[in-house]
Amino acid sequence: MSTARPLGVYVHVPFCRIHCPYCDFYTYPSGRGRDADFVSALLCEIELSRHRLDVAGHEVNTIYFGGGTPSLLSDAQIGDVLTAARRMFSQSGSAEITLEMNPEDVTSDRLDDLTARGVNRISLGVQSLRQSVLNDLGRIHTVAQARTSLETISGYRNWNADLMFGWAGQTVADFERELDELLAYEPSHVSLYELTIEPRTRFGVLAAQGRLEAVDADRQAELYLAAVEILEANGLRQYEVSNFAREGHRSRHNLACWRRQPYIGLGPSACSQLWSRRTENTRSLITYLNRLAGRDIPVTFVEVLTPAMEHVERIWLGLRTCDGGSRDLFGKRSQNVLDELVDENLAINRPDHSYVLNANGMAMADDIVGRILLTETKTKPIPRHLSY
Ligand code: SF4
């Protein structure tokens, strides 16, 4: 048995055909033909990372291509990145290798080719099975394409479907019908994303101008709880606020990030977390290309986590997952708050004396985690997003 410590690799592919009006990720228009330059820069970053980072004794056990739209890269380009990663890092023979795909990019030939190159998990951006909703969300794929991709992928053994919810006017009955339709394709994993209006997005601007109907928080909670019930009843167990999986199909990459295992982020805007050091790459593709053309690492932000910061992270990441947190992780006052949450049927105190949020608590996870962190630290730290 290998004694190497696990290491995750996240690859941010920044290209998108259009920029969706609700999205605040860094993206770059795919039509400008910079993909070959990007892959060359990525291969260089992999090589520099091998020399820059002290990863001896570690073995890559997950690789996650996120974005952006990673399926805009060709299969050969994805294969080149995987080959370089295998050459530069020690890699487990059973590594989980995930590729995010948009429905318009899925064909059975591509799935076969990607599998032959080492990809063994697909995350499909379905988002909705209602054409009017896809239109409102500014997505360019159609429901017909979503259904075709679902039919194509349904025989694949390890795949996730992303589904969004929570727009003004969405009813529980309609969401349940959508979930039923999705479940007929038997996904091994489902990620639910509540529509949030971020200020820096087109939706954020429209909302500020009063031109986008506000979403009712109670309705969002109602939709969420209905979805949890349906997914659980169909064998997809909740293991994080937004994530549900059949037995043996949890995302190993995301779980490792939530458990604060080290990972390396590659590509524009990607974050790395190695031991107590967190770094972030430049968000600009052009700066990224220029820096790597000079064999300069593209990191523009470095943060050394103090023990207090790590403690806060352990709490908020734990409470968002089925891991929860052991009682001794929390101060006395937080333990009292958690006991109140148990009384209010929002959390469970397990026999091993750990606390975990139940579905009702998960529906209010942001508020609850904020309350606990306020109790722990007297200030309300804003958790930074990890690379997943
Ligand atoms: S939501 Fe996905 S496809 Fe749309 S702009 Fe963001 S990353 Fe690209």
Mean pLDDT: 93
Parts with pLDDT < 50 across at least 5 consecutive residues: 382-388
Bound molecules: iron/sulfur cluster
Structural domain tally: 2
Give structural notes.
- This protein has 388 residues and is an alpha/beta fold.
- The protein has 14 helices and 17 strands.
- The chain has a nine-stranded mixed beta sheet with strand order 9-10-8-7-6-5-4-1-11, sandwiched between helices. A three-stranded antiparallel beta sheet has the order 12-13-14, with no helix packed on it. A three-stranded antiparallel beta sheet has the order 15-17-16.
- Helix 3 (108-116) links the parallel strand 5 (91-101) and strand 6.
- It is globular and about 55 Å long.
- The two termini are 28 Å apart.
- Residues 16, 19-20, 23, 25, 27, 67-69 line the site of iron/sulfur cluster (SF4).
Keywords:
disordered C terminus, binds iron/sulfur cluster, Arc Repressor Mutant, subunit A, 9-stranded mixed beta sheet, 23% strand, 39% helix, 388 residues
Q: Can I get a quick summary?
A:
The protein is α/β, with parallel strands linked by helices and 388 residues long. Helix content is 39%, strand content 23%.
